[in-house]
Description:
Elements: H1 2-29, H2 47-83, H3 85-90, E1 114-118, H4 123-133, E2 137-142, H5 163-166, E3 172-176, H6 182-194, E4 197-200, H7 206-209, H8 214-220, E5 225-230, H9 244-250, H10 274-294, E6 299-303, H11 304-311, H12 313-322, H13 331-334, E7 356-360, E8 371-375, H14 381-387, H15 402-405, H16 409-420, H17 425-434, E9 439-441, H18 445-450, H19 452-456, E10 460-465, E11 469-474, H20 497-504, H21 509-518, H22 524-532
Parallel strand pairs: 1-2, 1-4, 2-3, 4-5, 5-6
Antiparallel strand pairs: 7-8, 8-9, 10-11
Helix pairs in contact: 1-2, 4-10, 9-11
Oxidized coenzyme A binds at residues 121-124, 141, 143, 177-180, 201-203, 206, 209-210, 229-231, 241-244, 273.
Amino acid sequence: xxxxxxxxxxRVTKKAAVARRAAAHAKARGAAGAxxxxxxxxxxxxxxxxxxxxxxxAEARAARxxxxxxxxxxxRSIKTAKRAPAAAVKNGNGHPxxxxxxxxxxxxxxxxxxxxxxxxxxxxxxxxxxxxYMGADVIKVERPGVGDITRGQLRDVPNAxxxxxxxxxxxxRSITIDSKHPKGREILDRLIKQCDVLVENFAPGALDxxxxxxxxxxxxxxxxxxxxxxxxxxxxxxxCKVYENVAQCAGGSASTTGFREGPPLVTGAQIGxxxxxxxxxxxxxxxxxxxxxxxxxxxxxxxxxxxxLNLARVKLRDQQRLAHGPLKExxxxxxxxxxxxxxxxxxxxxxxxxxxxxLKCKGWEDDPDxxxxxxTQAPVWGAICxxxxxxEWKTDPDYATPNARLPRLxxxxxxxxxxxxxxxxxxxxxxxxxxxxxxxxxxxxxxxAEEPSLRQTGTVVEVDHPTxxxxxxxxxxxxxxxxxxxxxxxxxxxxxxEEILGKVLGYSASxxxxxxxxxxxxxxxxxxxxxxx
Length: 533
Ligand code: CAO
């Protein structure tokens, strides 16, 4: 019986793989993978064009048929896998046989996924850029003539897209559409039918005001995943507009960052924007995975407050620990300063159980970044004592144990600093790492930009841009061994409008010409002028 089920599962898996390959093949031949130019819509004046279009339509039909077959086969394989769990495990849980292609040559993780990118500023674009790095076809919709507001913010090169924009929108295509223009809405509806995910981070209610409600989107394309970043989740603040630092403050980061005697501080890392974009990307790929089973899309919501709190969860941990006594690893404990009702700011104390602090290194008088983070990790205490020339501390009862050291941490770090100040941060790094003492040099952005190892791994990448020239960007920080990432420059405003209208949405050349004068893809005045002409 088990053998029979096993064979059945293998047969179905094979069929699914064949169908999927056929779908991929047909897709590859069909322009940009998912064109659905219906035979009715195509009105070609010339015979050659008509032939080409009917060929495209036939290819699109073939792609659809093959896709349906793949979906059905996949459904059957899941059913079979459920009936025969042992066989499913052996056969890779109903998925295709492992590719025989060398790693890195079997496409990209998100090949075939198409994203309707309605994001702007930072949080949403971070998410869609990551998805693009993973291989998704990201189509960024921008307001005609204006585009993402960041194109013009913090400009360093006159008349060129800012680094704010270029570093968050690599590997994407740009189409301009006025979402409030009737023709623009029609184009958007077509895009919805052709895409797998819509990502947006408009102010609350803006997408609905465009007429793109969940009900509307779901009706047009039940497989569509609608992913949103908002400042707050449902509750008293859900209608508020939110930027990075608002989220850092509302998510518990600011109240726990800074020095005890100073005001709350925001951090330089954009945990509210980029952090939430990262959370959203995980939500999207999870929803894509669930869609394989359910066949339907869903809403994915990441509130920036929630994202920040998730990253600051150790402080919520400490809040609860406070009810059971003082937080002994906070230096204020060693200094005899009483705790209040809420988690205090802990300066540069380490967030874990191992005391740490930032110490001066050689050259600190002139270089604001000549510092090192030094952790007095208990297991390497002996090595620390030897290195800084205090071997007697290894056996001195005032220093030998972590508990004995707690009230003396300030003085201990003072002594260690006398040693670090005689070395550069890189010398300290080398000497400490040789004996497993965890330390971290405070690297400036200049040092990071110039660090050869980050260039080699593709974490820092130089790309060329037609109007601004070469610039540095952060590549994919997530490395997949079978999904290579080539970082491409950000698109110019509307650079791919015609390409997408024609190849993705199947508009004919004459229809594209009409759209161009309708005002739907150009700024309102230009459209009006063109109409009048
Ligand atoms: N065509 C026509 N109109 C368009 C358009 C297009 N292609 N794209 C956007 N618009 C319109 C929207 O429909 C909206 O119009 P209405 O207010 O009339 O409905 C308008 O542009 C402005 O959108 P917005 O309110 O999202 O933009 P804003 O600059 O006023 O606010 C922000 C920006 C970020 C505060 C807000 O979008 C927000 O709170 N987003 C959610 C949280 C978030 O992501 N914050 C992080 C931002 S990064 O620091």
